[in-house]
Amino acid sequence: MNTSSVLPRSFRLLVTGGGTGGHTYPALTAIRTLQGRLAAAGSTLDVLWIGTANGLEARVAPAEGIPFRTVATGKIRRSANPLKMLSAANVKDMVRVPLGVAQARSIVSGFQPDVVLATGGYVAVPAGLAARLCRVPLVLHEQTVRLGLANRKLASSATRIAVSSESSLALLPAEVRERAVVTGNPVRPEVLGGHPDKAVEALALYGFERRLPTVYVTGGAQGAQQINGIVRDVLPWLLSHANVIHQCGPANVDELRSAAAGLDPTLAGRYHLCGFVGPELPDVLALADVVVSRSGAGTLAELTALGKPAVFVPLATSAGNEQAHNARHLADAGAALALLGEVTGQALQNAVGPLLTAPARRTAMAEQARAHGRPDAANRLVDVVLSAASR
Ligand SMILES: CC(=O)N[C@H]1[C@@H](OP(=O)(O)OP(=O)(O)OC[C@H]2O[C@@H](n3ccc(=O)[nH]c3=O)[C@H](O)[C@@H]2O)O[C@H](CO)[C@@H](O)[C@@H]1O
Fold first, then answer.
1. What's residue 8's pLDDT?
2. Which CATH architecture has domain 4-186+376-389?
3. Domain Glycosyl transferase family 28 C-terminal, which positions (predicted)?
4. Cα(319) to centroid(ligand 1), Å
5. Cα 9 to middle of ligand 1, angstroms
6. CA distances, 316 to each of 6, 186, 277, 325, 327 (Å)
7. 20 annotated to bind ligand
8. Which residues of the chain does CATH 3.40.50.2000 include?
9. Cβ(143)–Cβ(22) under 8 Å?
10. Between residues 93 and 342, which one has the greater pLDDT?
11. Model pTM?
12. CB atoms closer than 10 angstroms to residue 189
């Protein structure tokens, strides 16, 4: 699909979605890509983001100069027990959903967008429903293989449903599948342009041994207690074979720092602990020879676009076991290793060890990973948005 020849003189896009990075960054990347394409054609973009006050998007959108509004959202916790359905939290949330739809409707009718793009998270539901009420084309983007809860609720109202992999198509009901298109999951372009030396400077990694490979351990924005525990269990072994950047979650830094306090000074110099990796993320990824990570859709899209060998420790409770599915899919293709079920430090050591000692294994895995990357996802999603507006 190529819609670049019919770019409008101006375009009004309302974006909604967020909560976590997995929903926020694809929205941000789509906005920037559309902005770039319109600017190149001498056209302009007016954009507005509807998100939640306490989601990542509330920081990201204003920092990018994107006008940002919030609406009330609620999470309906389903339960077989009717008494639990009537819990105070559920009743409060049931009231918040129609309130959020009314607020979103007023925003949509005031802004008059050409398209509403929804990228998932609870906030996408009221804004998506408001798009339908205002008869504005609605494009959904789904990052994971199975549609998330918000997108399942909105699918019947959507003009197009952009999915991140072919394997999603077979899982969609026929009436949804005919409006679905595979775009991939957009990755922020800067994530692909990092430099290892900049990571060394930005994080002052002067105790790192550059002849050794570097392992980047990440548990997602909040960190992952499970990953922190197994890394801590094998830390002296790991540091005798590699440098380690360990993103452990802001709440876990103190605990891990005291666990690392007894390390031999040479090994301690090879260990960098941090709560969250901010703007230096591209450089950290560029420096990493092996990544140990949760298998959320955003991280997967980044690691495959870069072609990084990875050992995944999926979040066991993610909806529909989606992270385990993601990890297994890449592991079956030789593009990663997946540690499922009860994961011990020893299992991590068995998986990471051969990757550290045999660079050829890393190269082979990196090639397979790259074959699953979709660096053109943002442009494809923008094509879908533009074509939905021109229908
Ligand atoms: C717990 C949960 O609900 N997880 C879901 C959530 O993932 P969640 O948003 O937690 O994780 P993702 O892997 O999708 O995205 C994380 C994003 O944050 C970035 N990052 C992470 C750590 C850090 O220190 N700095 C940083 O910038 C990563 O590079 C990535 O871009 O949404 C995904 C997309 O719908 C789903 O696949 C996940 O199952």
1. 82
2. 3-Layer(aba) Sandwich (3.40)
3. 214-381
4. 14
5. 35
6. 45, 25, 23, 10, 11
7. yes
8. 4-186+376-389, 190-371
9. yes
10. 342
11. 0.89
12. 15
Quote the ipTM score.
0.95
Kindly report the protein residue whose alpha carbon is nearest to atom 36 of ligand 1. 296
Q: Is 297 in the pocket of ligand 1 (CB under 6 A)?
A: yes
Q: What atom in ligand 1 is closest to the CA of residue 275?
A: 24
HSE-up of 57 (CA within 13 Å, CB side)?
Answer: 34
Kindly report the CATH number that applies to the domain delimited by 190-371: 3.40.50.2000
State the pLDDT at residue 390.
77
Distance from the CA of 220 to the center of ligand 1, in angstroms? Answer: 5
DSSP 79-129: -SSHHHHT-HHHHHHHHHHHHHHHHHHHHHHHH--SEEEE-SSTTHHHHHH
Task: Calculate how far, in angstroms, residue 19's C-alpha sits from the geometric centre of ligand 1.
Answer: 10
Which of 13-27, 74-88, 343-357 is predicted with the least confidence, judged by mean pLDDT?
A: 74-88
The helix or strand, by DSSP H or E, that contains position 322, with its residue range, turns out to be helix 322-332
Higher pLDDT, 5 or 345: 345
